[in-house]
Amino acid sequence: MLYQLKPKTRGANKGxxxxxxxxxxxxxxxxxVLLIMNSCTGKSLVEVAIRQYQVPVLKYRQHNPVLQLKLTxxxxxxxxxxxxxxxxxxxxxxxxxxxxxxxxxxxxDSMWVKYEKAADQAGSIVDPVYPDDFIPGPDHYADRKIxxxxxxxxxGNDMAPSSALNIAGEQELVPGDNYxxxxxxxxxxxxxxxxxxxxxxxxxxxxxxxxxxxxxxTVVQRIGVALxxxxxxxxxxxxxxxxxxxxxxxxxxxxxxxxxxxPGTFNTDLQGNIDIGVxxxxxxxxxxxxxxxxxxxxxxxxxxxxxxxxSDACILVDENTGDILVAGLWMYGVLDTAGRWIEGxxxxxxAWEHQWRRKGSQPGFGVKQTCQFMVxxxxxDGQTWxxxxxxxxxxxxxxxxxxxxxxxxxxxxxxxTLVFPTQGRDENGRAFSNITWSKDGGLTWKTSKPAYSGxxxxxxxxxxxxxxMLNMRYRNPEPGKTGRAIAVTRDLGESWQEHPTSRAALxxxxxxxxxxxxxxxxxxVEKSILLFSNPNIxxxxxxxxxxxxxxxxxxxxxxEYWLLLDEGFNRGYSCLTSIDENTIGIIYEGSTADMTxxxxxxxELINK
Length: 608
Description:
- The protein is mostly beta strands.
- A hairpin with a 5-residue loop joins strand 31 and strand 32 (431-438).
């Protein structure tokens, strides 16, 4: 679309004219190219590009990116200083949701969120780093250069919310690209079903020239909650979410509490000082109580906490009794590359191994042979948690190298059977997915036959015919087949049939995903849909966290019923629940917080 703007003359030899404004639209990327031209020389002085990303605006986070402004100054142009921006908030549902608006100058850094490893070098996962996290104290990042080279400078002052804002300051532009970010801080009582939007309507310069951008932006950002952030409660990283709604309507979010990272590395995974944390909300996710700990093996067996880690938790609400179960995988000590337990480990030891790597977990039942499957129970709606029970010898086949919970959530079937999605490594060390179930309220458990080899991190849902669908991460995709593996059982895993859509319907970058069946009433009739969430992309790194809807038991996932939540690079894991029949809750590893929570009206998902 072309716009012709009126000229503004400032004397015979120093006039500046607004010329053509060209708007280019490609997906969500809106580029506004505006030229300030000198009437004598004809040289272009400044080019402006504006972008708004589909990422949530989060409560309890100081700076939330809304608009990226790129001002490009040619190398041979005279000195140019920006002295003001006009910002409007048209599209924001309620200005009382906003506490403050700020602008930051980032120099030549294009992104507000940085990453410890460059996206093209990170493989599957990039670890977000935020300016908010730069606080005095220990070096929390393996790549110190990120902090040293990154210096956001606030342009002007904090502004109270208004439909139209004029933010004055002064910033000299350097030759080449100059990036500014318009940021928003939310009030603590911001409505989770509201949205935030913004536009830049004017940019002013010290020489009196003005740019008036025009935009047809289609991005509106949802409000969410920064449920867990880097360094909250002095914890380095929070990872691997689960989410469930209790019989009382309480939301319980679980996650790895990865207290430290191994010095000089990016690693915070098992084996390490990791517990399973719980956050609790009794108002639909608007506010959350302080973190509790559901699983912590302490210094069991005389080893330090970093050699008693618990990870990859799964939460299950027993709808028959109201009890809540949290399962986690406990690793005691470390096995060497030959699968032998290492003696004499201390706090100063640097031996490390992971249960899915090499011989990090082996056949047998003992704590020095194989990782242990632990379950803690709450009988008071998630307020307190009992001593963990070890299910390893009860359920694991001795020949398996590993048997573990699959992260996320379990279910109560229509007949009252409790089902955990589970995973493991077979007698050859190859990954598999299965289920583990109980018909007596979790006193005794049985584990099924593997559903699919080469998979792990599965999610389970019951279909309308009573069968169970297992949706699985496929660890070694072949070219052209990067979708989730899917299998169905009608006999609690004694036999499995591959689903017609397996490896084809739901693309993934090899990552955990969430499958969930939601019930609702329409015109007096009870209905149900399947929901699925994951990074909606086939290649690494992980990004574009999306919710999808199936109205036909997982046979199709129509694109018009996809909802993009967060397009940024992230760690990718997520978990879904019903807040009530008209509202969906999701916790996910976002691009702007370790644990992001969003509340989504059902109508936004199914009324297209």
